[in-house]
Specification:
Layout lengths: L3 E6 L4 H13 L3 E7 L19 E5 L5 H11 L3 E4 L6 H6 L1 H22 L3 E7 L25 H20 L3 E6 L1 E3 L8 H10 L4 E4 L5 E6 H14 L5 E4 L4 E3 H11 L7 E4 L14 H4 L9 H14 L1 H9 L5 H7 L1
Parallel strand pairs: 1-2, 1-4, 2-3, 4-5, 5-6, 6-10, 7-9, 8-12
Antiparallel strand pairs: 9-11
Family: Belongs to the NAD(P)-dependent epimerase/dehydratase family. dTDP-glucose dehydratase subfamily.
InterPro entries: dTDP_Gluc_deHydtase, NAD(P)-bd_dom, NAD(P)-bd_dom_sf
Catalytic activity: dTDP-alpha-D-glucose = dTDP-4-dehydro-6-deoxy-alpha-D-glucose + H2O
Amino acid sequence: MKKKKVLVTGGAGFIGGNFVQYMVDKYPQYNIYNLDLLTYAGDLTKHSAIEAKDNYHFIKADIADRMVMIPIFEKEKFDYVVHFAAESHVDRSITDPEIFIRTNVLGTQVLLNAVKQMGVTKFVHVSTDEVYGELDFDPSTFFTEETPIQPNSPYSASKASSDLLVRAYHETYGLPMNITRCSNNYGPYHFPEKLIPLTISRVLNDQKVPVYGDGKNIRDWLHVLDHCVAIDLVLHEGVNGEVYNVGGHNERTNLEVVQTIINALGKSEDLIEFVEDRLGHDKRYAIDPTKLEGLGWRPTYSFETGIAQTIQWYLDNKEWWQQIISGEYQSYFEKQYRL
């Protein structure tokens, strides 16, 4: 029997990388294709344990380059596409919005054209709760799939634009798709510029940890492995054309997250340094995942168990994040794939 082919875009990133590993291990009967441009946040060292497996394949390509993407689709004839590839760091979007539009909007449109031309069984577009804008601090309010889209940063605006393109291709061309919108992820292989790994690495080095504003902004934290299970479920059982929110039921203020890590590592909260707030900083995100839970999904990690596991992972894998911070990881592709 011919193996089904699953294209994962952005599979050298944080969430996409965890998903690639999850799929390669869970579905030996599938061929998993990791397509990534290997920008600054793309890291292939995380795949050293699977790169020799028969069902894992890597393609270096730019999703926004239609002259490259169309031939790839024509050659491989993918059955499924799971689209993670995106610029995702809000701070970077504030200083340089253009690259976010190119990758997140144009890149998604190029993929959609390729999918429409070649046909796939399912296109899953991985998005973010940030497209909904912000909630106030009322704990009874949540984002649902019916919440209007009101993005507040160039990053979230670019993701909202790509969401709308995916919806339009479904409505206009009948493209089989689902959109998932997740809360803040954390876990193994999180790039060190993000809050949790940044805090862990700085605390371990006895460096100051910057906290925006008063630290009271609230996020709902979702362990990346719970997210991978959710996307797998949507890929195989999601109702065509539907949006599914993926949340962890783990709301914490940014300050609480930082304090939890500092205390777990036995360091002083004097390391906390409050800095000028981010422009357009949303107050609170919180997701109601009832619709996805109707398919049978539940998060398995509480924040307490998840953050303990994550901290231990960073303690056990110092070499990985230290070479990310130093930039050494960027030579890995050259060594592994070009020599």
